[in-house]
Amino acid sequence: METDTTPLGEGTEALRAQGPTDAEVITYCSAAIAELNRAPTDFEKNVQEVGVWANDIDASFDRTTRKFSDLVKKYGKDYPGLKDYSNEWQGYNKRWVTNLLLSRDVASEQSGVLNRFENVFLEMIQTIKTEQDRLDAILELQSFVEEDHSSSQKMSQAFFVLKQDIAHFVVRLDAYLADKKVALSNAVKTLQADVNRLQAQISDLDKKVIRLVVTTTALGKLQAERNNKARQFEQKEKELADANRKQQALAQLQTDIDGLEPDISLICERLVDFSEIWTSVSLCPSGTDDVESRAQIDNKWSKSLSMSKEHVLTPQQRFIIEVELARKTCTPTRIGLEKYATELENRPRAREELPTPE
């Protein structure tokens, strides 16, 4: 008996390179198609929620924006940097509205793209009978490939980047408050030490005036020195009282900012949901793997046409069922995108958000 001398590593890599067999792919695709026929996809379920999600984000942005405006009015004099954070937050709100409106348009656009892919390109593949049919399908695919289908990826990225920017905003705002807390704590310690020092110096001067028998000139100098110390003491006491007041205000400001956390967290969570919807769209087989699709048409089907019927059955079945799975995947995505656009169009705030015609 011959012994296989192929190194284990090379054999493993060879098996990996071969990939699943035709029969395995047919089994997998058949199961996937059955599952798609049986139950709605996560994408379909999520799309039904986009109107609710959008309303959640709108409400959270409204509450947070109003709260920031109130905080600027209440604490802006002591902490002018709050105004910059408030303006930045309003910018995030505008980006959200812009992205949402754009996503509605992209949903309509991508629905049309998927409709063409499903009912033109996949239909052509499934009806291939001759060599000319195959060449026509390749030509149609090539035209499709040359189009820009990246809008769903860009949409996903837009929502995700907005979420990331808001997360970084929260970190920077927390750091701003923490820096103010440290600075005030240090100021209070310094001012308290100054007040204590001046108070002790004034007390010493008062004792000297009482104890010593001095000339009028010397007494005048002592009194002038005491008055100067008293003015400094009074100023430092005012500064200390103001610093203590600012500390109390900062503590309340921190509590108010902490109160924004539920709304901001909800906004970030929902933005991720929107991003994932568009990631799902970008992964739909509507041309993202066009080079591989063309290769399959060019090689698998071509070979199947030139082989005898008994040898071509399994590879041809595999190709047909792969195309069927692509169609079954595209259909709910296309329908979901149509619902996405409709859900956003019918929201109570949709009309308010529409750009004003020029």
In short:
It contains 12 helices and no strands. With 358 residues, the protein is mostly helical.
Q: C-alpha Rg, in Å?
A: 36 Å
Report the order of strands and helices.
HHHHHHHHHHHH
- What is the end-to-end distance? 85 Å
Query: How confident overall, as mean pLDDT?
Result: 77
Major sheet description: none
Low-confidence stretches: 1-17, 287-313, 354-358
Into which percentage range does the β-strand content fall? under 5%
Number of helices: 12
Principal-axis shape equals rod-shaped
Derived structural class: mainly alpha
Instruction: Indicate the percent of residues in helices.
Output: over 70%
**How many E strands?**
0
SSE diagram, text form:
Layout: H1 8-18, H2 22-38, H3 42-47, H4 50-75, H5 81-126, H6 131-145, H7 151-211, H8 216-258, H9 261-283, H10 290-306, H11 309-345, H12 350-353
Helix pairs in contact: 2-11, 4-5, 4-9, 5-6, 5-7, 5-11, 6-10, 7-8, 7-9, 10-11
Structure overview:
The chain is built from 12 helices and no strands. The protein has 358 residues and is an all-alpha fold. Helix 7 packs antiparallel against helix 8 and helix 7 (151-211) packs antiparallel against helix 9 (261-283).
Name the features.
mainly alpha, 358 residues, 12 helices, disordered C terminus
